[in-house]
Amino acid sequence: MLDQSPNGAPSASDRTIDFLSSTHKLLIDGNEVHGASGETFETYDPALGKTLTSVPNAKQTDVDAAVTAARSALAGPWQKMAPSDRAQVLMRLADLIERDASWISEVESLDSGKPKLHIAAVDVPLAVGALRYYAGWCTKLAGETIPASSPDMLVYTRREPIGVVAAIVPWNFPLCQACFKIAPALAAGCTVILKPAEQTPLSALILGKLALEAGIPPGVLNVLTGDGTTTGQALVEHPGVAKISFTGSEEVGKHIARTASKTLKHVSLELGGKNPNIIFADSDVDTAAATAAGAIFFYTGQVCSAGSRLMVEEKAFDQVVDRVVAEARKLKMGHGLHEETTLGPLISEDQLERVNGFVERSRETGIDVVTGGRRGKGELASGSFYEPTVLTGARDTDGVVTDEIFGPVLTIQAFESFDDLVKRANASSFGLAAGIWTHDIAKAHAAAAAIQAGTVWVNTYNQFDAAVGWGGFKQSGYGKDNGREGLDKYLQTKTVWVNYAR
Ligand code: NAP
Ligand code: MG
Fold it and tell me: How far is the CA of 169 from the centre of ligand 1 (A)?
């Protein structure tokens, strides 16, 4: 349990202390219930390496109950609610998240290690933005009439919800990943079972309570905390679930696709990335380099879109390395509740071991660790802190260049020509995002067309908007979150033929 004044961290608010000391329950059919087995698991504050609280570990019986509730809500209250009323309750949920933004950010910060101010400035507005954007779609799900060539036939289409959706989300943006899935699914008329990641279950529990307060009918949103191999697996196998909307690792995504094929579920996968951030010498190199540091070190590099592979035109290489290193050294590691913290811990000791393994192997193979490359010391030693790290001299085949590290580790490599750059940037098995920095408009568009990625940012990085689709190419997955495409994946089209011959 969290102390009132945990070692090195400011006190959490009374509301958070009360929440953490309460008994957490699953949300099934509008009721907060203990898991059927009574089994729980702990969630940690990774900045202190201390237990925060325990949550239920949902088992097959709980999954069955949640699916039954979601199926009856689908055919019942949610389908019967007028589209304009559905829009109103989604808007109300957005308002309630905004009302509680500071508290939610505090809980999420403790659970994930991410600075509270970053959550309040980024995660909460993205979550709220998704709910408001998709609330607008509830009243706009129009079908069409089709001029078929058969005589005396009226042919029209209906856009219908696909069914019960299992939303399975990772630990790096728990609240907003949940809303990126819940908002379009509910707008489409689907009902949802949300399974948050084991490391960060708390904001999902809060979201479930707020959904009820907003007037979302019982059973429309169910929340099951639990581990992936039990709760997640049971959802993916369940014949009553129509769609899996997944964000997470490539390995689990592929496993889910294989498992879901047995019941022919719809699947969408938002997976990892190894995103090239490309600086041409004709750009505003200083701004590009400063932004590149933010693109990798934001949330300690634990971001699917992290610009983890910085590629710089030879002439600008030294200038970029100097500026990125200077930015890295300015970052202030610390507890997420400290206002001055700009770099929180990694999510767990396992993640730290993995990240450090990449850096250690780099050292052994002669790659230059220009800055960082060690875990936090002193009062940071009990948390999973890792210094912002910059590597130069890596080859394209080295693990640090090919693999998603998911930590504050940046490789900077030089490129010679446009063609060299495109070939090397596209050599990755991933294709999530890319950044391009240049003042040459022709070069910018040519590179945007040539780079294999679901999103390309030109002279900017990490821009997100509920109206703009997000999702990867290649091994980064398929199916977009956000935007019109993010809605379509929760809808199926029915064709109706009406004979009006007299
Ligand atoms: P993960 O290990 O794949 O877990 C993601 C979710 O899947 C968790 O809720 C996990 O539960 C669950 N899960 C695990 N095994 C499962 C199974 N057999 N059946 C069903 N569900 C299962 O990913 P992570 O480590 O939490 O997140 C990091 C990864 O997410 C990175 O690769 C990152 O790039 C990716 N990501 C992608 C995007 C994007 O938009 N493309 C955004 C954010 C993150 P447990 O927590 O209990 O294991
Ligand atoms: Mg935690």
Answer: 6
